[in-house]
Design goal:
There is one protein chain. The chain has a two-stranded antiparallel sheet. A hairpin with a 2-residue loop joins strand 1 and strand 2. It has one domain. It contains twelve helices and two strands, in the order ββαααααααααααα. The protein is globular. Helices cover 56% and strands 3% of the residues. The C terminus is likely disordered. By secondary structure, it is mostly helical.
């Protein structure tokens, strides 16, 4: 099945983005995302109801998911109100989520959280992805039952990203339609992500989390980094970002590494 390759040049799917281009995209991304991800990664390592609800509320507000739909108007205080949508998500998946987290911690405890998904054996990783797919389906049903969600799959993927950031990928509507246009299978998207990261690391000899993410971006996870790249390949004319940022993303995607391994950056763009 065809997918847009996030970590490879659009006109040559055998040529990986150089690590400097990846770093530039991360640095160019809104700082609020970096700050929120640090909190989410740190909080999600300690599995509690409080951390679950705080993380979901924080991420939904950062992704502007509280403007409409199932999470409209949700505040941190609302997250602890019985029977709101975040409370329903917690009750619906807490046992299975705790199992998945425990399975990952048990089988990849000696590795950094940022790369644990890749450090699992193929069989273990397939199991985690299958369990995460089931969590996704459960969340879609819960969010749909709120009666306010037109696209429950978007909310479901973001809830999972907020509480399982080393595995889950937040997929918005443009990504479903343009980046992963030929599947509605969340597990297949996660498998694609893992395979592409593996392929990129083999071809470049670099580690996506250690060699591309600057210190200010730490702690992070592979899905968090991949998410930034995935959002950068959405149709630019549909993105609600400034003209300068649009041009910068387009420039980075179209630029090729020079023989020295560096990008030839125009003075019109930030270095």
């Amino acid at each position: 099945m065809y997918f847009t390759k996030i970590l490879f040049y659009e006109d040559n799917y055998d040529e990986p983005l150089d690590s400097r281009s990846v770093t530039k995209l991360l640095v160019a991304f809104p700082r609020s995302y970096t700050e929120v991800m640090k909190i989410i990664v740190e909080n999600s390592g300690n599995f509690t109801e409080k951390n679950f609800k705080v993380n979901v509320a924080l991420l939904m507000r950062n992704f502007r998911m509280t403007r409409s739909g199932a999470f409209k108007g949700i505040t941190f205080a609302d997250a602890f109100t019985p029977d709101n949508v975040i409370d329903s998500c917690w009750k619906g998946i807490k046992n299975d989520l705790e199992y998945v987290r425990g399975f990952i911690d048990k089988n990849a405890a000696s590795h950094k959280r940022s790369s644990r998904l890749l450090k699992l054996s193929d069989k273990q990783r397939d199991h985690v992805i299958e369990e995460t797919r089931e969590l996704f389906h459960t969340l879609c049903k819960i969010i749909a039952e709120s009666g306010q969600a037109r696209h429950p799959r978007v909310g479901a993927s973001k809830v999972l990203f907020a509480v399982l950031p080393e595995v889950a990928l937040p997929v918005d509507n443009l990504e479903w339609d343009y980046v992963f246009p030929k599947t509605s299978d969340y597990g297949e998207i996660l498998t694609t992500m893992v395979n592409e990261i593996n392929q990129w690391q083999v071809k470049t000899g670099k580690l996506l989390d250690e060699d591309c993410a600057p210190k200010v971006y730490q702690p992070t996870t592979l899905p968090s980094i991949y998410n930034v790249l995935a959002m950068s390949v959405r149709p630019i004319e549909k993105l609600p970002v400034s003209k300068t940022v649009k041009e910068y993303y387009k420039f980075l995607r179209e630029s090729k590494p020079q023989p020295s391994g560096t990008l030839q950056v125009s003075q019109e763009f930030p270095s």
